[in-house]
Design goal:
Elements (H helix, E strand, L loop, with lengths): L1 H19 L5 E6 L6 E9 L5 E8 L23 E8 L4 E9 L4 E10 L4 E8 L2 E9 L1
Antiparallel strand pairs: 1-2, 1-8, 2-3, 3-4, 4-5, 5-6, 6-7, 7-8
């Protein structure tokens, strides 16, 4: 009986560990790179294909802002509701990569990666062109 109990507890340990691991899914506040002022509220979610994506749910700097710098179907489209990163795949418990991110200020799309830091309370969002990467730190809401 004792052996069965120990086996059951050991079998459940990975489930408990994964439940305790922070996830980037949820609401985040972004900040302007130059001024440091709050810019957007973004919802990170799991897409239908199992990757992570993020869409803007609120523009804090201008309620009805459009993406003037964007091209194609996003040209002059409302920023609220716009998907700004997509196809992020888990690398490990705190890192995600392989996706793309849209930089709203210039309308360009970059390769991207994400990293949860500060116990899952902050999300480092990187946009990369070749080996050169810039990042923003988002805070959990």
């Amino acid at each position: 009986m004792r052996t069965k109990l120990i086996a059951a507890v050991l079998a459940l340990l990975p489930l408990v560990a994964s439940a305790a691991a922070p996830s980037p899914v949820g609401r985040w506040k972004t900040f302007d790179e130059e001024t440091g002022k709050p810019r957007l509220i973004v919802d990170v979610y799991e897409a239908a294909n199992g990757t992570l994506a993020a869409k803007v749910v609120e523009t804090l700097y201008a309620p009805n802002a459009n993406c003037d710098a964007c091209t194609g179907d996003k040209k002059n489209a409302p920023i609220t509701g716009m998907v700004i990163f997509w196809n992020q795949k888990a690398v490990d418990a705190d890192s995600f990569a392989g996706g793309s991110v849209l930089k709203l200020s210039n309308g360009k799309t970059y390769k991207s990666k994400l990293e949860l830091v500060d116990g899952g309370n902050k999300l480092e969002v990187y946009g990369c062109l070749g080996f050169i990467c810039k990042h923003q730190t988002w805070t959990r809401q």
